[in-house]
Amino acid sequence: MKSRFSRRSAFILAGIALAAGFVWVMARSGPLAPLRVTVTQVARADLAPALFGIGVVEARRSYLVGPTSAGRVRRVAVDVGETVSAGQLLAEMDPVDLDQRLSATGAAAARAAKAIDTAAAQLSDSVARREVAAANARRYDDLGRKGFVSSSVTEGKSQELKSASAQVTAAEAALAGARQDLARLDAEREGARQQRANLRLLAPADGVVTARDAEPGSTVVAGQAVLRLVAADSLWVRLRLDQQRSAGLQVGLSAEIVLRSRPGQVLAGKVARIEMLSDSVTEERIAQVSFDELPKDVSIGEMSEITLRLPGIRQALVVPSAALRQRDGKTGVWVHAGDKLRFVAVKPGSSGADGKVQILEGLKEGDGVIVHSEREIGEQSRIRVVSVLAAS
Amino acid sequence: MISLAGRDILHSWGKFVLTGIGLGLLIGATLTMAGVYRGMVDDAQVLLTNSGADIWVVQKDTQGPYAEASNIRDDVYRSVLGLPGVAQAANVTYLTMQVLHGARESRSMVVGFEPGQPGEPTYLVAGRRLLRGHYEAIADVKAGFRLGERIRIRRHDYEVVGLTQRTVSSGGDPMVFIPLKDAQEAQFLKDNDAIITDRARTAANPALNRPGVPGLLDAVNAAQTVNRSVNAVLVKVGAGSTAETVAQEIRRWKHLQAYTRVQMEEILVAKLIATSAKQIGMFLAILTVVSAAIVAFIIYTMTLGKIREIAVLKLIGTRNSSIAGMILQQALGLGLIGFVVGKISATLWAPAFPKYVLLESGDALRAFIVVMLVCTLASTLAIRAALKVDPAEAIGG
Prior knowledge:
The complex is a heterodimer. Chain A is of the alpha+beta class.
């Protein structure tokens, strides 16, 4: 009898255990199981909004050095990475026949100088002839008046004087012409010399050579770069910010720059310029951020991450950003009051760097809002509040 | 009145319970198989629900973005936004790839989305939403990432700032959500070696590298590295319009393919997972038949084992209905224990499966009815055998 009793009780116990397990399983899963959520109170806190974008290191001033007319490169004096100073010879173009033309115009000028001498001598010769002719004319005029010579002789001498005067005028003109010829040839020579100097490519400013695009012997067209220079002290970062998250961008904001080459190091900077044109294709705003102190060995074209600190908001009403939900086209939060769940539409403001969002309208301090949830929430959801949902 | 069945069960209750548990594990396996099938369908459903879209706009003549590859320009959404009835339209990219974290990698579907637009994860289980426009990620818990962990997608590192749950691709891969611009780059940017060899190839082409046109080569190279494509545009329909009319408008005037939720479900469930679903369905059918056969045999052999006792009962004049009732009650009891054990075990081991296993209450109810029916049917076999027994066997054997 006793053994039967213990058998029966063991059997009943097993049955109860099974039933309990079944109830537990049904309660834990399926439609009867409550939805686990975490809840927080709406509170006032200081909000530190920030903007984040990526940028590329660029030089504020960069120069393309090349010839003004097509030609062949004769010599390149510097290489990539060299520091050059303003006025330094960087490269030279092939002058072809320019040197010969220079010496030809030089010789022509020398000849013109000699031509001046000839003209001057001819002038003094004709002046001397005129003086003799004038004396003769005067003498024969006197004799003619006294009747010693015939009037035809007198007229002949007077005509000789006029010819001599005309020859002087001609000689003066020839001299002036020779002088102008010399001036023209001098100017021509100066022009050729300047053309020659123009083939020497000089550094327009102090800088560092970043590219050597043509080697000696290669032909370049007018305006094509032989060398590229940048002013090494003018590096800044061209920052691209998503238009959607660019409100508050202004000149002078302090920036934290992290270069891709040194991810652990935060460099200080400032927004130096904001471009009025934003990129309509990528939907980004563009701004330039300058370094407070230029880091050594920074490379142009390097990627960087930039965080801009906006002025903080004191004692704003905030909720975690995870609490914001979309429902029927409205942004809002689930408010947990008593045992009821209610969707409240809110007007979110700026968001802080710590994931908090300012609430401008719709909530008051102390409201309990649902932050994390296992599934989508509805008004009828049965919930169970826990402190943490997933391992974090 | 003495319960014959109860007496008999108590007589050898250990054997009875153990048989029930064994049967239960078999039923559990069957239930799990049904759950695997339901899970597959549910994966496809949550994929659509999580995207939060009413219409999927994809490349013309494709069934993208999940079932086929689809590429459209990323400014298409602007012209879609201009159509009547469209409340929201947002670009989205999907790319299934291996995501590196530490030395391990996990297979994930990387989703590029725009914050506050359809495509964004609707709820989080930990962490926060994306704040920055670059290099932050929200991951499904199944991916195994932790908050604050840095994961690598192509050439950039991303910080995991939020975790979500049940956001999976139709293949059950966990999703990793990153900003759209980063995702576009991850999807379309080639690796460095490919870029360099491409540049060399372009430079070797005399048509693209003419000596008299400086800058042409740079322009061609720049044009080649830019890719402004996305996989789909997700559209939310405004109040007062139906998804179908807006989708028709898009198909007709924008020369793109547009699918409504119903059509998308059709593509995913009927086309994408059709073969694997049929595979599982076939297996489920076989498993159900096998389970039913085993239940029937167990009850039958249990009865045959007691054939001598039944003969004695008959000899002392027990009514046939009492004997039939005893066998039926035992069979139903066995079925009940089996069902409960099966349900419990299936629920316990379901979370351990790598893919989602959805145990539906409706399935459980159906399984219960089937188990009870099979037990009843099996007991009729046993009852027939018991009633045919000759009482003389009790003495003669």
